[in-house]
Each structure stands twice: as C-alpha cells, then as structure tokens.
Amino acid sequence: MLKRTKLFFLATALLAGIAVQTAGAADKKTANVIAKVNGKTLTKSDFSIFVTMRAGNHQLSQLQLQRLLAEYINRELIYQEALKKGYDKIPEVIATIDNQRRNVVAGYTVRKLVSQPLSEQDLRKVYQQKMSRSTREYKASHILVKSEKEANNIIKLLNKGADFSQLAKQKSIDASSKNGGNLGWFAANQMIPSFQKAVTQLKPGSYSRKPFKSRYGWHIIRLVSTREVPPPPFDTVKEKIRAQLQNEILSRHLNELRKNSKIKIYR
Fold first, then answer.
1. Which residues, other chains included, contact 231 with Cβ-Cβ below 8 Å and sequence gap of 6+?
2. Which residues have a Cβ under 8 Å from the Cβ of 26 and sit 6 or more positions away?
3. How far apart are CA 48 and CA 7, in angstroms?
C-alpha cells in the first residue's frame, strides 16, 4: 500500500499540468477523474494502480507518465471493444479472470498478514538465538563415483600416495572434478547430512578412509582446512530476519487453515 500511495501522489503531481490543459479547473466531483473514454470515467486512483503494476516503485518523469496514460487509455479502448464483441463471456477468459481475482485477493491477504509490525526486540531475539555465534567453515575436496567398489579402489590409491586432486580430475563424476574436486569453503549444515557427518569427523589434511553413499553416488572427502567465521553484525541481517519471521507467520497461518479445513484432492 505504501508503494501504491507514493505513486498515487507522484502521478497526481505530474499529471497536474495535463489535467489543466485537457480539462480546465477541476471541481470536487471530477478531482479524481483522469479521463473519459466513450463516456466511461477513468480515475486517478485506478491509474495509480495501473502505474504500480507497470512500473513498480520506480521514479517516473512526466514524459514517462504521459506514455503510461496513453497506454492506459489504449487498454480501455481495447477493453471496451472486447466487451462489445462478447469476449468477456468466453469460458477461457472467465476462468482466467477468476484465477487472477483469486491471486489478487489472496496476495492482498498475505501482505496484510505479514505486514504486522515486528519490533527491534523481536528481531534481536532471533539474532541472539540463531546468528550471534561464530560458525565453523570447512574447505574440502571430494571425489564422487558411481560404485562403492570404485570408491574403495581410489582410497587404496590414496593410501599408496596418489594425488587427491589428480584422481578427482580423472575419476570423479562431479562437476567439481575439473577443479580437482575443490568445493571451496562451506558451513557443514549447507551439505547433505551424510556429507556433513563425514567432513566434521576429519582433521585438516586427512581424507575419508571409508567411502559414504548419498543419492548422488559414493563420496571420498579430503578436508583441506577449517576456519572460524565471526557472526554478522545485527544491522546487516536485520531485514533477512524480518523476512524469515514473516515467512514463519505465513507458514503457521497456512498450517492452521489447513488444519481447520476439509481438503479433498482428486487425482
């Protein structure tokens, strides 16, 4: 609503000159009128919504606004023609309008739901619980192959002194093979559980003595190094936390709606 209100006042200010040229001094009855097309009144408030849909919250020049007004009037002309031809009665059009109406109404409801104010205290509480501590990151390489037997054969080669990165280039089916299996830095929780468990049990410079399986295949990991990463300052993650809390509010609301509704899916 804030964006729409801002654009409404912007549109009103920029169109003041146009209104004076085309309609003269407006009285109270026509203060919100921006144009009439074949007797149909078009309002500034409706045009403001059109501008929001077309331009978002971007600053607009008077020339840009004039072009949008021309487009707005053109749309009305085509719409009136469509009504005359009865296109609004076509089942496909009716279904599309109904679907768009549901999207708009549901979207408005979601915005109202997640727009409830969240205090600084609410945001800092989540920050203290989830983001205020340093985290450990791992730098590792891996080799991914299709079978356990092949993975064990690679481990035998490593035990004999073979170079991990060269074997990754030659044997790994993962996209990282071209970089010698290098995965860069990552937090353990960014990886699948089996990978997370394996990498946290290694010491820097060591590699998996036993391969482990995932849905991608069989893995062998070499841990290169670890580091401690300080927590991000609160101000840099405040809006991220706000978005997370808004998503949680929406998720809880949807779960409650589902819980109290009768839903039957036909397949």
1. 131, 132, 133, 134, 135
2. 19, 33
3. 6
Residue position matching structure tokens 């809880």: 252
214: which strand partners? 217
Q: What is the pLDDT along the chain (267 residues), one digit of tens a residue?
A: 444 444 444 444 444 444 444 444 445 667 789 999 999 999 999 999 999 988 887 888 999 999 999 999 999 999 999 999 999 999 999 999 999 999 999 999 999 999 988 999 999 999 999 899 999 999 999 999 999 999 999 999 999 999 999 999 999 999 999 999 999 999 988 999 999 999 999 999 999 999 999 999 999 999 999 999 999 999 999 999 999 999 999 999 999 999 999 999 998
Can you tell me the distance from the alpha carbon of 233 to that of 245, in angstroms, rounded to the nearest whole number?
Answer: 18
**Stated pTM of the model:** 0.61
Q: How far apart are CA 33 and CA 41, in angstroms?
A: 7
Q: Is 151 helix (H, G, I), strand (E, B) or coil?
A: helix
- Do 111 and 117 meet the contact criterion of CB atoms below 8 Å apart? no
All structural domains of the chain, each given as residue ranges with its CATH number in brackets, are: 2-89 (no CATH), 137-229 (3.10.50.40)
E strands present in the chain: 33-37, 40-43, 135-145, 182-187, 212-214, 217-229
- The Cα 117–Cα 104 span in angstroms is 22
CA distance 53 to 22: 25
172 closest CA partner among 137, 221, 206: 221
